[in-house]
Amino acid sequence: MSALNNLHPLVWNIVIGTVFGRMATSMSIPFLAIYLTNVKGVSPTQTGLIIAVSSLVGIATSFFGGYFSDRFGRKRVLLISIFLWAFVFIGFGIVEAVWGFFFMNALNGFCRSTFEPASRALLADLTEPKNRLIIFNLRYTAINVGVIFGPILGFYLGSSKSTFAFFIAAGVYALYGLSLLITYQRTSIQTGSKENEGPGNRVKMIEAFRITKSDSILLWSLIGFILAITGYSQLSSTLPQYLSNTSLIENGAKTFSFLLAFNALTVISIQYPLLKIGKKYSPLTSIMLGSIMVSLGLIGFGLARGMLVWIIVMMVFTAGEVLMFSMTDLFMDNIAKPNLRGTYFGAMGFTQIGNVIGPALGGFLLDTHGYDKPILVFGLLCFSSLLAIPILLGVMAKMKNQSLREAQT
User: What integer pLDDT is reported at residue 257 of this predicted model?
Assistant: First the structure.
């Protein structure tokens, strides 16, 4: 890990900030639905719309969020979005009306889709290409560490009964923003792209849209990733519904809680051993292997009964998750145009369409076939996830052809 010895202070700032930011988010946002229905008396339909609007706004604005960081500079976009994010959490704490929660969660999705692409692009700007995989995975680890502790803190803070945790989250994000501001003031930025601050590097939005639209590798990889994430999303949508309602498994809710904790711990435990293996192959190869393992995990969800089997199945699923998500940032960095790195990372936000399609598809299959036919339900979900493989194989072929053409010119 010699790559960690000479990291720019901003890189450490983002990694450490990610731990506390995700911890703050996961101790508040996951409990919002329970608070709205149980305390505020909001209907399940309205609650579902409030929760969904964050993802929908994130999908709609992620491309623009990434572009803004290319056009106006990472610093400006990061600082504006994170301080706005802090005010959003204050808003969650003080609003009373249903429309207020809807508006705040829409802003939450906007802030996330603006800050995240810019921060990942800055990590790439400040890191040598040979070390970017390690840095992207360090950020991935930071996310998982935050998510392990956040829900536990949220539970003890009573986040399902009050909005107190949102005020704490606001304070965390305000401190994160202040730390970025101070670090920017005390350090210099020296990157090959000069953080895209120069006028010559500023690409107009219509041109950025034209370039990305004409990039068939980007477009087809996004489609493949959407299908892969459709399968992965079943972990937090279809699986808990199945376990909580099926007659085939006793204490399904308790089993799901254990599996979630085991999933997060497994991610941290196996991430870097898998990283050493994944470095021997292309990022796309690792992503495809990860998608296959997630699909096998989905079949396992339908077959598993005893706890030992569930543990084995979850290990397979989690290994697939790590291979998929630890390599997507590096893959996007590899295919991005140097002066449009933020835009390409922003385009990754479209893959969250899988997090919209997946729960809807899983819920439809449960409604159609019931909770006691898991092999059929998860088998069909597995098939939908595997559709990503031929598409990503096509992307790999396109990349090889592109490399050959570049070598000949």
Answer: 73
